[in-house]
Amino acid sequence: MKIDLNSDMGEGFGPYSLCDDEAMMKVVSSANIACGFHGGDPDTMARMVRLAKENGVGIGAHPGLPDRAGFGRREIPYSADELRQQMLYQLGALKAIAVSEGQRVSHFSFHAAMGNMVNRDPKLADLMMDAIRAVDPELIIFAMPGSEIEAAARRASLKTLLLFLADRAYDAQGRLVARGLPGALVKDKGAVRARVRQFLVDRTVTAIDGVTIDMPAKSVLVHSDTPGSLELGRIVRSEIEAAGGTLAPASEVVG
To answer: What is a GO molecular function of this protein (predicted)?
Structure first.
């Protein structure tokens, strides 16, 4: 059983960082690297690519809205074409840096508000996926199960890898509980361990209201800005290994 463990990384800039990226890179199998808009900068992106190379970690683009102050979590009313160009700009930047280091970008994962906007709009989702396919038809799209991003990626004949978010609560419909609501962020170590164990054994997760929902994912995400993210990542890894799973980057999980 191959399982991917991924984290959003390189989301600081200049001298600022959100987590110990170097240590986290030794825990995960895939890194979603911020591409300079909501977080990251050219030097940080290059450092993340080099760390991924050193640790055999898959490299993914993690584009977001140009909003450092809001960490890319505030929706901004850009047109569909503006969003398309912003996404392509970031993807292209990371691809260039990766190629210069003898590496390739193998997967793609939207950040926060940009992803939310795409998930609500089938036409925008199709526009984004068609643009990604034009740049690199081999990119693996990270998506939530049953999401518009997953559907649009499949319509564009792009490979997908479905995500289980270990540190975020779900509602009974399988949607993420909005940040800011009580219980939306799961940061208790015991709770994360229990959620991951349930996912690995039953492929289910218990929603915030107690309902059990299916979770047909093959990748587990831990956000690097969640308090204690490094320890949470280690817990997830230990549970995967204890369940007899093999950690593998997205490209090996999808095949």
So the answer is: ATP binding
Neighbours of 92 (CB within 10 A): 14
- Assign domain 2-165+217-225+245-252 one CATH number from 3.20.20.370, 3.40.640.10, 3.90.650.10, 3.40.50.10860: 3.20.20.370
> Strands 204-206 and 212-214: what pairing?
antiparallel
Q: Which residue spans within the chain are E strands per DSSP?
A: 2-9, 30-34, 58-62, 107-108, 140-143, 159-165, 204-206, 212-214, 219-221, 246-247
Q: Positive or negative CA dihedral for 229, 235, 236, 237?
A: positive
Least trusted range by pLDDT, from 8-22, 44-58, 107-121: 8-22
Whole-angstrom distance, CA of residue 3 vs CA of residue 162: 11
Question: Under 8 Å CB-to-CB from 253, ≥6 apart: which residues?
Answer: 2, 3, 4, 161, 218, 219
Note the pLDDT tens digit of each residue in 133-181: 999 999 999 999 999 999 999 999 999 999 999 999 999 999 999 998 9
Spell out the domain ranges in the chain: 2-165+217-225+245-252
Q: Decide: helix, strand or coil at residue 122.
A: helix
Which amino acid does the sequence have at 12?
G
* Residue entry with tokens 């909005």: 178
Is pTM beyond 0.85? Reply is yes
